[in-house]
Each structure stands twice: as C-alpha cells, then as structure tokens.
Amino acid sequence: MEDAMAEQPSITAATPAPVVRSEIWFEDGNVILQAENTQFKVHRGMLARNSSIFNDMFSVPQPPMPEEESVEGCVVIHLPDSAHDLEIVLRALIERGFAPSREPVSIKIVAAFLRLGRKYDFETLRTDALHRIFYEVPATLEDNDACMHNFQIEGHTDDGWFWINIVNLAREQSIQPVLPLALYECCRVLYENHGPSSIFKGITRADGSTALLSLEDQMICLSSYSTLLAMQNTTTFVWLDAEDDFVSCRDGQFCPSKRSSLLRDCFFTQTSLQGLDHWNSCVKNNLFEDQQCEYCNHISEQIHTAGRLHFWRRLPETFGLPEWQELIKEREEQVRFRLLLRTLKKLNNLAIDPVESKLAATFFKQILFLWTYVSYIVLSGRTW
What we know:
Radius of gyration: 28 Å
Shape: elongated
Strand order of the largest sheet: 1-3-2-5-4
Distance between the termini: 83 Å
Number of helices: 17
CATH topology of the domain at 20-130: Potassium Channel Kv1.1, Chain A
CATH class of the domain at 20-130: Alpha Beta
Strand content: 5-15%
CATH architecture of the domain at 20-130: 2-Layer Sandwich
CATH superfamily of the domain at 20-130: Potassium Channel Kv1.1, Chain A
C-alpha cells in the first residue's frame, strides 16, 4: 500500500521565476515597469511624453501603494508584454541612434515598435515601423524594383524565414497591404530553396528558432503555388508561346525553336516561380541571352515587361486579398492617420493654460472624428 502511494505522481506548485533587474535601471527613476519577470526603472515624464496611454495613466491620482508592492519606493506597473519587446522600445526612447532611420534594423525591432507602439500609443515608433515595412514590402511593381538593393529591415535574403516573419507580423498587426508580395516570396523561396515540406516544417532562423507560417497561410501557399506557376505562363512568359508577335523575325526557324526549347527547359523540365523576375535579371543569369535574334529579343523583352506587370496586378486575387487599389488606399490611410495623430497631439501639448488645453482637446476629438468619417467614406467607396 505504501509502495503504491509512493508511486503516485505528486502535484506541486510551479516555482515562479525570480524577478530580475534589467540593464535599464535609472537610480533617479520614479516608476518601475515589469514585463514577465524583468523590471525596468525609468522616468514617468519620458513615458508620458511618448505615450498618450501612459500620460493618461499618470495624470490620474493613484492611491498610496503598500510597501510590499513597491520597489525602492517606486510603484511597479505590471505589463502583459514580452520583456524583450519592452526593452527594445525603452532603448529606442532612451538611447539616441538606437534605430537610425536610414539604416536597416532587425525584424524584432520592427515587431516591438508595431506591437507596443499600437498598444500604448508610442506613435513615433509605430510610424517608423510602418514606414520600414511598407518600404521593404512595396505595393507597386515600380517601388519593388527600386528597393531591391536598399533595405530598411535586416535579413532580406532568400533564407525564407524573413518572409515568414513578415507574413506573421502582417497578420498579427492587420497590415494587409504587404501580404500579396510577402506570400508570393514565401511560395517562391520555401518551395524552391527548401522544398514543399518547408511550408509545414518551417525554416530555422539564425538564432536556432523556427519560423513557421500559421496553418491558414500554409494552406494558402500550398494551394497558390500551382496557380502562380500557371499564371506566369500566361503573363510574364507568354512570349515563349506567342508566335504571332514575331512576324518580322530574321530567322523564322531558329528563334521559334529556341523559344520552344526555353519553354520546355524553364517550365516543363523544372518548375520555377519567376513571375516577378525582371528581364535584365534573366539575361544576367544567362537564361535568355543570345537565344534569339536581336528583333525577337526586343519583342520578347517588351512582352515580358508588360506580362510581369499583369502578373503583379493579379497577385492579390491569387491569395484571396482585395485589389491593389484598395490595399494602397489602406496603406496610405494607415500612415496619414498616424501622421495626423502626431501633429494634433503636438498642438494639444502646446496648450499650457487649462482652458486652452481643454479647447485643444475638444478640437483634437472633433478633427479625429472628422478624419475617421472621411476615411470610412473613401475606403468604402461611398459618396457624400
């Protein structure tokens, strides 16, 4: 009996992780933020200046805190956020040059700016993150070509995990305009560099963790890949099977034969997603160079360029998303709305007299309401 009881598993309460002090600890700080088991001692004024949420919190008189709930005489504010995200945001507010606007930063910094910027209204940080992600993942083919060699977010390679991170972050933060290109890149990079199984297994990041799409996006990529392959044959590479456009060919037998050979080699023998590949990059990789006469090369490039634009325009519908025109409006509204908020807050902060402050607050609310209404009218396509 005793042996039987001894074999029974015992249930013990999990020992909470010990609270640790962050490197961000100002001796003259007057408030402590705790995320997970990490505490940060900072200044209320710094938080209030950069966040309307903290500004409102500190403007409301609080009852005295019991001594056991304070640290070094400072109130402890528990935040349900990642300690890593909070540290990034605090460093950005404290350290000049932490995330220079013209230099690329890690996706972790962008994610922290977006998450906490939205949650606590760190407007400057969220706007910075939006500009970076919108620059990195454009909404027009022209902008996409322009930023191919200039990056605002680190890790922009064909390793795959970068695009998985972008898709997951866009879903989390409702940044729909970046999804068409990001999902296309997931299909291209994961299938061709890592094999179809990587859609479900994910990709190992540089730090050893695994980047994995949500189940919904796994299904979207899986079902869209064959659609994209078929679509590029009727858009970007339609010239490979369009004999009517080459009536002035100088070699009526050689060039058609070469195009048929290219069609077979590129899309029948091996499947490769190249719908957004620029003509010049194809030539640089010796894919089409010296394959046809000069006239046919010129016509092929024209058809390729026009087809590539058509392929781009059809990306959103392929992934079940709104048209580019609507996505571009949504993108512009997000940035403009953030800039308007920042401007109005500055106007509100200029009011020193209590009466002026009250009037400014009223004006701020009226303008905000008007802007929201106008945005709704524009996005919904309604008329006045």
